[in-house]
Amino acid sequence: MGVLHMTRPTIFVLTGTSGSGRKTVARKTGEKLGWVPVRSCTTRAPRNPEQPDGDYKYISREKFDEWEQSGKFVQTATIDKNKYGILLSDLEAAMKDDRGVCLILNRDGASAVKERFGDKVVRIFIYVDKQTVRERLESKGTRYDVIENYLEHYTEEVTYRKSCEHVFENVELNRTIEHICEAMKTYGG
Ligand SMILES: Nc1ncnc2c1ncn2[C@@H]1O[C@H](COP(=O)(O)OP(=O)(O)OP(=O)(O)O)[C@@H](O)[C@H]1O
Ligand SMILES: Nc1nc2c(ncn2[C@@H]2O[C@H](COP(=O)(O)O)[C@@H](O)[C@H]2O)c(=O)[nH]1
Question: For residue 172, how many C-alpha atoms fall within 13 Å in the half-sphere facing its CB?
Fold first, then answer.
């Protein structure tokens, strides 16, 4: 499939149950549709400090608080004492390009972005059943306490699907991506 060029910027928010494959789906779908990824800032330490992943911009708590107080974030969240937020400047820079932009947020972040940007925002809810979350994260080498924490929040997270514009169960990765690409044709091409 060719890269979709949007007639106006559209913000695609990947949300859903933790460990359902949102980052993987976002990356692969984004490559196909030409989405510009916008990473969140976080004060959470990288899970592998020797090899921090590229999913976030890891910043200090002092820097986060300073930026938050001066209104630099589109939205922020506190999850397990860690702060997360998307910088408005990062979002605006990504939206200058004539392509869709992609954010990965929990439900509060998805709702906040929807409220702020309205029709520009398309929320894509990704989920799998609890047992699959456990199996996938175990095989990825995720720490036991992180997996347990994800599973504890599963029920409250999964109910948010009803508020989202699109809902996909991520069973077979390539099929999930195919289905999302098909559904996203509504928004440009
Ligand atoms: N459809 C799929 N089938 C099998 N494995 C998958 C599928 N989708 C993603 N995975 C794998 O599941 C694991 C979790 O995926 P990923 O890190 O993308 O999830 P996430 O929802 O972004 O997680 P987190 O909540 O930690 O941010 C990864 O090892 C990924 O390769
Ligand atoms: N509301 C926001 N939620 C965010 C943001 N960046 C990431 N997230 C979500 O936080 C949880 C925890 O992530 P983890 O990587 O530490 O396990 C997960 O649901 C992310 O999608 C953000 O800027 N705002």
Answer: 4
**Could you tell me if 188 and 5 are in contact, meaning their C-beta atoms sit under 8 angstroms apart?**
yes
Q: For residue 49, how far is the Cα from the chain centroid? A: 22
Q: What single letter denotes the amino acid at residue 130?
A: K
| 3-state class (DSSP) for residue 36 | strand
- The tokens for 5 are 């060029």
Q: Has residue 1 been placed in a domain?
A: no
Q: ipTM exceeding 0.90?
A: yes
Between the alpha carbon of residue 170 and those of residues 49, 78, 150, 167, 178, the distances in Å are 29, 27, 17, 10, 11
Going along 17-81, which residue ranges are E strands?
Answer: 36-37, 40-42, 56-58, 73-79
Please tell me the distance between residue 105's alpha carbon and the centre of ligand 2 in angstroms: 5
Do 107 and 131 fall within a single domain?
A: yes
**Ligand 2 atom with minimal separation from the 75 CA:** 24
Q: Which domain holds residue 58?
A: 39-95
For the Cβ of 175 lying below 6 angstroms from any atom of ligand 1, the answer is: no
Contacts of 126 (CB under 8 A, 6+ apart): 14, 15, 16, 17, 20, 21, 22, 25, 168, 170, 176
Tokens of 136: 């996938």
CATH number assigned to the domain comprising residue 152: 3.40.50.300
- pLDDT tens for each residue of 127-186: 999 999 999 999 988 999 999 998 998 999 999 999 999 999 999 999 999 999 999 998
